[in-house]
Design goal:
Elements: H1 2-12, E1 17-22, H2 27-32, E2 36-47, E3 59-61, H3 67-78, H4 83-93, E4 98-102, E5 105-114, E6 119-126, H5 131-143, E7 150-156, H6 160-168, E8 172-183, E9 194-196
Parallel strand pairs: 6-7
Antiparallel strand pairs: 1-8, 2-7, 2-8, 3-4, 4-5, 5-6, 6-9
Length: about 200
Amino acid sequence: MLMKKAVAYLLGRGVETTRLEAVPEIADLYRKMGFVEEYDSLRFVGKSRKGLSARDERIQSMNNGMLADIASFDSQYFGADRSKVVSRLFQEYSEYCFVSRSGSTIDGYVMCRKADAGYKLGPLVCDPTNPNIAKKLLVICMSALEQEMSVYVGVPASNRAAIKILMELVFEQYSKSIRMRLGKDTANDDVRGVFAIGGPMKG
């Protein structure tokens, strides 16, 4: 009843596409409501640690002056304006935020935040033609964290380059959810560039 009320409200506001992430055990509930599957969203966990080699002169700590450009870069892959999300994460956890530039052009960024137990790493968005940048961003971010703590990462299953990087860094998959859609297939995102999501509720 709550879901029907929420969907009706969104339709009344002119929303053409509604997305959610469902745990597999209750995905049938959403299928019966007309939601269709888009892709699996995998969950991994690893350990923060120093000593990993990832020095790169293109990668630097994020600052306030970069946020507008980072949000613009992010929108190419996420398919929506997440400037408020990016700004909020940076304001709360700036010490765990890094960006990669080629000249004046952004080619990747990573953000991380503290969790109840350990850290949640993401979003990590990168030019899909250069996954090595994504790996370096991930390693540099992990090196900035309190050591030997759990680091949780969510990634679209279709981004095989992201999964390969996580496996190389000894992450293990522990669960998954299913990204589902009700309404038009807007197809305005590009998960090839999404190497870690910020969270199921934010993408």
